Amino acid sequence: MCPEDELTDRRPCDLSEQRVFIHELTLFAAKLGRLRQDIGLPETQKILEELFGEKPAQTVIKEYVERYADEMDKGGGRYLTGAARIPAAVAAMPTAPAVAKVAPQHKFFGDAL
Question: Model pTM?
Fold first, then answer.
């Protein structure tokens, strides 16, 4: 950390705004922590929507499901992580796998916060 770098040298500038900002950062970190746990796609999509908005969340979940569907078409991976449930927003996609098995829990999201 740079000694000249202070949280208070930028906005939010007063203590009440700083408390709100710190509270929001704490919630953000908690949601990111939840994403690192073994959760199903519906909950993952819900958290991503809360953090980044509906459209980016749906796009990333759709790409995730399509990637696994492509692997299945090639005879490769046949597993989805978590509860192996496809969220309603992407369930109607023709590329969604019809059959999926629960994969063992993984932690490939990077280092701990």
Answer: 0.54
